[in-house]
Automatic annotation (TrEMBL), chain A:
Signal peptide: none
Domain of life: Archaea
Pfam families (UniProt xref): Oxidored_q6
GO molecular function, one term: iron-sulfur cluster binding
PANTHER family per record: COENZYME F420-REDUCING HYDROGENASE, GAMMA SUBUNIT, F420-NON-REDUCING HYDROGENASE VHU SUBUNIT G
InterPro entries tied to this protein: Hydrogenase_assoc-protein, NADH_UbQ_OxRdtase-like_20kDa, NiFe_Hase_small_N_sf
Domain NADH:ubiquinone oxidoreductase-like 20kDa subunit: 14-164
Name of the featured protein: Hydrogenase
Keyword terms of this UniProt record: Oxidoreductase
Automatic annotation (TrEMBL), chain B:
GO molecular function list: nickel cation binding; oxidoreductase activity
Organism the protein comes from: Methanooceanicella nereidis
Residues holding Ni(2+): 65, 441
Domain of life: Archaea
Residues annotated for Fe cation binding in this entry: 65, 444
UniProt binding sites for Mg(2+): 43, 62, 395, 447
Protein name: Ni/Fe hydrogenase subunit alpha
InterPro entries: Ni-dep_hyd_lsu (IPR001501), NiFe-Hase_large (IPR029014)
Protein family membership: Belongs to the [NiFe]/[NiFeSe] hydrogenase large subunit family.
Cofactor(s) this protein cannot do without: Ni(2+); Fe cation
Length: 306, 470
């Protein structure tokens, strides 16, 4: 049997997904006996994607080049894998959707502290790609057959996905949440006060959320092995929403508000408690804003304004 | 009639770029430019976010050097809060940095750059890559894979994960190393020293073999900038030193004052800005950063094996060495240094210390964090309000500092090696080798807006008919 042909490309991305593939380390070598990369710009000088069985894309769609590349890959492969949080949900750079393209460009090319650009010129020559109004997930433009979420994706999951495709076995994402994988001790979800990561004294054994830190584990799909909470940092949700959950950020807001320990004191300042939930978009939609209802709502608003 | 040759995407680099070459019918090159294709806008969307979150956000600027962004961000945050990083945390952050250098430098040499030297710049694109190396010399490939793994394991142990590190928090780090961690990592670091020595032994004769190409490609004589500490090569802390083309120090300064010395120019043909030495102006203020710049800027290296390599290098190429392809050589000297430093740090009992965090309070402030990323000097600068929320952010990545030099080097090289409007693939690959030498990270570079950097060549006739695309 010949090797299975694979084409891989990155769109608006950071290369972390490609590093995740390489982080299979020596276990990648036997995989390479079964698959053959026919196109992968990070490693090869072949300049155009040929026809292949499997296509892999990382990154979101940020500009016209990304979109063109995505369509080329989709056209030339039978099975398309969206690799990583940006491809699956739009990812962290999707927070740029909170601003207009003009605002982004003016910040970068005119107003940052070190920039000297008196005439306020944006780059324009040599057919530079056009920046699209928004960062978008790959699935907004083409059919995605397999999603491997994560920032970066778990190398073992990438290996499992590729091998299952080769063997024809189904590849399935976990239906559990990060909390189910987290080794920290859980007891009562009763929040007294929301803490920022530098406030209070962190108990290394106990659930971070129960200590008051905004940890998105309960609203996030399992599969990472709870790496962040294990290392002492709250989950920020890079694996995206849990199975059957429409909106990861809403699930987190619901988790926080339903665990607030309300007393019966009529003088309790509810507004202050709500205000304590700092930066809900940055914390709860860190990786999924482009594919969230929030983003769609914002687009409708902008359209209505115009 | 001027035609444009486009090399797009530039490949075996990180991120998206293309090269545009203006050439007339007789083959005379009038200009060559590096086009960086993307921008993602991190500087904008950091605004309004809590500053302690920045070190966990800027990691998505680059998946190859996330540790550098994490640490430059963490240093800037500590400066914003006005705290001195807890002593053990400082050690662990520095060790994290060496883990990343081992991963990134070995990745660049074996996976991206070596194929040009092992198979030659004219080998077929199907063979001239890491898969070609795996097929031709599987043992070497396994060694390369194991080498990089050492780096990633050090990163995982200190950063929580190898991509998107998470452990640095204001004033410290969330988790320490146990003696069991050290017992596991120290033998690996020692192995990395051996791998580094073997890599240098392998590479030096190859560099020698390609010395003619090294002399021709990418000429861009410049000043050089890098961190030094007591004159030693430094990757984590210290003073920034700028040296001139004669090797003399022009300025040594506290990194937090970078705005006094550095400004950024906006090219019309690239989404990547181009920093320059302010005092000398855009025309004359070209400097470079990188492994070569760092070993040019320092007086010596504090570890014995790497210092011996530096002295041998200086004897052959002088100080400052200017040849662009020597970046590869310098990178391997740093690989050895990083491995030696990892061994030193893991052998020091202080590494399992418990002073992981200091108490901090939010305040209005400004914080600059400067670190040496694998590709060169990286600067993060945040302003915060009294609640520690970011009000302004500025990031200058290593690849940006080298932007002008890459453009100059491309033009110089094109004028030397291109004499026809239809150059052979191998000639265009030599143009890519100029860029590859810088180990540029266009994902970093395009933090400003999302980026892409494969290289593709399109050759059009004046009527717009495509004659070559690869």
């Amino acid at each position: 049997m010949g090797k299975v042909k694979v084409i891989e490309s990155w769109l608006g991305a950071c290369a972390g997904c490609e590093i995740s593939v390489l982080d299979l380390h020596e276990t990648l070598l036997p995989v390479l006996e079964k698959i053959e990369f026919a196109y992968i710009p990070v490693l090869m000088d072949v300049k155009h994607p040929p026809k292949a069985t499997v296509g892999i894309v990382s990154g979101g769609v940020r500009n016209s080049d990304n979109l063109h590349e995505l369509l080329e890959i989709r056209k030339n492969c039978d099975i398309l894998i969206a690799l990583g949080s940006c491809a699956c949900f739009g990812g962290n750079p999707g927070l740029a959707n909170l601003f207009t393209t003009e605002e982004l460009l003016s910040e970068v090319y005119v107003t940052t502290k070190s920039t000297k650009n008196e005439i306020g010129r944006n780059p324009y020559m040599d057919g530079l790609p056009t920046i699209l109004p928004e960062m978008r997930a790959v699935g907004d433009y083409v059919k995605v057959d397999v999603m491997i979420p994560g920032c970066g994706p778990n190398p073992a999951m990438i290996g499992a996905a590729i091998l299952s495709l080769l063997g024809g076995a189904p590849y399935e994402l976990s239906t559990k949440s990060v909390c189910d994988e987290c080794p920290r001790e859980k007891s009562e979800r009763n929040l007294k006060k929301i803490l920022r990561p530098f406030e209070g004294t962190v108990d290394d054994k106990k659930c971070l959320f129960e200590q008051g830190y905004l940890c998105s584990g309960s609203a996030t799909r399992a599969g990472c092995g709870a790496r962040c909470p294990t290392a002492g940092a709250a989950c920020r949700g890079c694996f995206g929403p849990c199975e059957n959950s429409v909106e990861q950020g809403a699930a987190m807001i619901s988790a926080v508000t339903s665990c607030y320990g309300l007393d019966d004191d009529p003088n309790t300042d509810l507004d202050a408690m709500v205000a304590d939930i700092y930066d809900p978009i940055g914390n709860f939609y860190k990786y999924t804003l482009p594919s969230s209802l929030l983003n769609k709502k914002a687009i409708e608003k902008t359209a209505a304004k115009k | 009639m001027v035609k444009q040759i486009k090399i797009a995407p530039v490949s075996r680099i990180e991120g998206h770029a293309q090269v545009t070459i203006d050439v007339d019918d007789s083959g005379k090159v009038s200009d060559a430019r590096l086009n960086i294709m993307e921008v993602r806008g991190f500087e904008k969307f950091l605004v309004g976010r809590p500053v302690e979150e920045a070190p966990r956000t800027v990691t998505q600027i680059c998946g190859i050097c996330p540790v550098s962004h994490h640490l430059a961000g963490a240093k800037a945050v500590d400066a914003c809060f006005g705290v001195e990083t807890a002593p053990t945390a400082k050690l662990l952050r520095e060790l994290m940095q060496y883990g990343q250098f081992i991963h990134s430098h070995s990745l660049h040499f074996y996976f991206l750059a070596a194929p040009d030297f092992v198979f030659g710049p004219d080998a077929s694109p199907e063979q001239r890559n890491v898969f070609g190396i795996i097929a031709a010399n599987p043992e070497l490939a396994v060694q390369a894979v194991k080498f990089r793994k050492v780096g990633q394991q050090i990163v995982e142990a200190t950063a929580g994960r190898s991509i998107s590190p998470v452990t640095s928090v204001p004033g410290g780090i969330t988790k320490g190393l146990t003696q069991a961690d050290v017992d596991r990592l120290l033998p690996m670091a020692k192995e990395a020293v051996e791998f580094s020595k073997a890599t240098l032994a392998l590479a030096k004769p190859i560099f020698n073999q390609y010395i003619d190409a090294i002399k021709i490609l990418g000429e861009a004589d410049s000043m050089h900038l890098g961190l030094v500490k007591n004159g030693n090569l430094e990757l984590y802390d210290g003073q920034l030193r700028l040296i001139g083309k004669d090797g003399a120090t022009i300025k040594e300064f506290d990194p937090k004052d970078y705005l006094n010395y550095i400004a950024e120019y906006v090219y019309p043909h690239s989404y990547l800005k181009a920093p320059y030495w302010k005092e000398m102006g855009w025309e004359n203020g070209m400097y470079r950063v990188s492994p070569l710049s760092r070993i040019n800027a320092c007086d010596q290296i504090s570890t014995p094996l790497a210092n011996a390599e530096l002295q041998e290098f200086r004897k052959a190429f002088g100080r400052p060495a200017q040849l662009t392809l020597l970046y590869h050589y310098a990178r391997l000297i740093e690989l050895l240094y990083s491995s030696e430093r990892a061994v030193e740090m893991l052998s020091d009992p202080a590494i399992t210390g418990k002073e992981l965090r200091v108490p901090v309070k939010a305040r209005a402030g400004t914080g600059v964090g400067v670190i040496e990323a694998p590709r060169g000097t990286l600067m993060h600068d945040y302003d915060t309000d009294e609640n520690g929320i970011i009000t302004k952010a500025n990031i200058i990545v290593a690849t940006a500092h080298n932007n002008k030099a890459m453009n100059v080097g491309l033009k110089n090289t094109a004028q030397k090696i291109i004499d026809t409007p239809t150059p052979a693939e191998g000639i265009l690959n030599r143009m890519e080798m100029v860029i590859r030498a810088y180990d540029p990270c266009f994902s970093c570079a395009t933090h400003t807006v999302a980026g892409k950097m494969p290289l593709e060549v399109v050759l059009n006739t004046p009527s717009g008919k495509q004659v070559l695309r690869r």
